[in-house]
Design a protein that fits this description.
By secondary structure, the protein is of the alpha+beta class. Helices cover about 35% and strands about 25% of the residues. The strands form seven sheets. An eight-stranded mixed β-barrel has the order 14-15-17-18-19-20-21-22, surrounded by four helices.
Amino acid sequence: MPLKGLLSSGGGKSAKWRRAIARQALSDAEKVAMLDQLEVSGLGWFWASDEEGRLTYLSPALAERLDIPLENLIGEPLASLFEPAANERNPKPLSLLLNTHKAFSSMAVHAVARPDGAVLRLAGQPIVTGKTFAGFQGTGTDITEDYHREQETERLARFDSLTGLSNRHRMAHVIEATLTAFQAARRNCAVIMLDLDRFKQVNDTLGHAAGDELLKQVSARLQRAVERDCTIGRLGGDEFQIMIPDIDDRGELGEIAAKIITMLKQPYSLEEGRCVIGGSIGIAIAPHDGVTRAQIVRSADLALYAAKNSGRGQYRFYTADLENEAIFRRRLSENLGEAVREKQLLLRFEPIVEAKSKAVRALETHICWDHPDRGYIDEEEFASILDGSDQVIEVSQWMIEEACRHAADWPECVRIAVNVPLNLFKYDGLVAHISSVLQSTGLVPSRLELEISEDLFIGDAEAADRTLGALFKMGVRLTLDDFGSGYSSLAYLRRAPFDTIKIDQKLISEAVRVEARELGLIKAIVALADALEMDTIATGIDTPELMKAIGECGVSCVQGAIYAEPVDIDTVQTELIGGSWIIPPNENRSKRARRRTVFRKIQVIHDDHSYEVTLRNLSKTGALIEGLADVPKATQFVVDFGGGQLAVATVIRSNGDIQGLEFEQPLVDDGSGGLCTRNRVSPYALAAAGAPLKALSAGNYKTMRGGTLGDASVPQFGYSGETV
């Protein structure tokens, strides 16, 4: 039955209803009192404005919540008092909403005078009398806690909770969006991949809390190191990524990378102790090294992998041959076992010289590889191939056996030193193998010196102690390698039976730097070793200045290029015929620069023709090419090194088919001991200029249209014989 019918029907029941409804009617005073109670309780606040948008009413409790006196709010334009909160989606100015004279709801705002204060959710309803707009009336709700909780949730979804840097998800989004926008505008963008060196050791030795604090300090240093617009992210663990827009200058990028590496290797002070780490960097540049996020990140990853394989603490730019290099290195690593069985490996020996007498007291063993396809692989490159290989135990066992076999024929005053990889030391059969080798070769145990890294004590320290104890009882000499690069070296010396401390080479190299503290540290290490009745070895002595400084520290033995570099077994046997080998330092000796053949066959362009020539040598300011006859001085060439690397050069010397070139703009370091052009020319720009694309290096510009020269061009210079 309708309510109206019920109320109009007779009976006592309808009378009760009428009395109940009558009790619902409140006076105006009672209504105001109820609203006051609602405002005071905080369940609801109210506001009102006039037709011009000035605030005419605001709940006093709301003004108190905003921490602004009510008299400073009433009469002021509402749009000047409040503004949208920071994370408000699609925020519209409050003035725009008010001017439309339309209802609005759920607008998050904060007071302009208190941007860090309370956050309100406002709703408003226009008041219209007839056709006349009379202002707004609305409600306000305090959402401060919910707002900050939501803001923190969104921040954690985009930023790393530990360092505050962008996380992996946000970096992917930023790089993707930037490359998409830059591709249309043909702008450049660099991506840097960074991996910390020796970070795991900090976690293992000082604890995860120390590792977390270290990551915070690393992130702070990264933000100081890159002094230009960039986005820095932590991808997880000890991996970082940096995106720098609008840069393709490899000279500038190299300087940034070198600065980062220098800053990262400075000591860190943590609550748990002092530590030193490092960093390796890979750099790729769009659009040269990729146009999509997947391509450019993969290129930077390959460059990082190459930097780590080159000895860590370095940077590398991506080049097209890095992928082939990575594949070839993996194949080499897989073929190490075959190399042992096919007798392709050979040993070289680096003299360790007694500081006072200059007599050779030991020879440190290095492995090289005479590869049937690759050719000679020196000890430095071989060490990077062996690192992490599944064949490291087999190869290292061969090295120990071969080294002992040679040393058995040497004078008793000369020891053989062998570096023991961590994987081999953890191998259960190490002690038995060494015992068997000593017995079969007849080498006195005290003439075998095993060099062991501090990394040995990370993990199962008790097992390490047992192995060291067994070797000590056998009579083998033990050397703690790279002392000064770790974190708990004093503890190692106290518990392990070492005979010698080999001081970290990086510590040695800094000893002659102005205002360096390393020299004092070296003196302290020598004093500590003397107190413990241990010998000391300083490595990497390659200059007279360094030799003099280290000599004043009182080290027992030295090794380095100023005395001798690694030599083959024939040289060792010849030098030891007389029973001793004296090597005085030679100031004219210097460390042989590791030679890398970066360019061999290259293109040079003159007028409308391209010539293939042989690059004989290269420096930052010029090059020597061979293959063209009768080229006069002052001839200008565009030298194409490949991969968009073009350099303008002038012939300053010409002798037969050899020309000396001087570059218009010097080359820059490529991070791997080689050189590269500061900038690369985009193939799009070359095509637009009508450049001779067909004349440039094969494969560089296959997708480009344009290029007016090549097939119909006329050469001005002839080739010489069979040089090219």
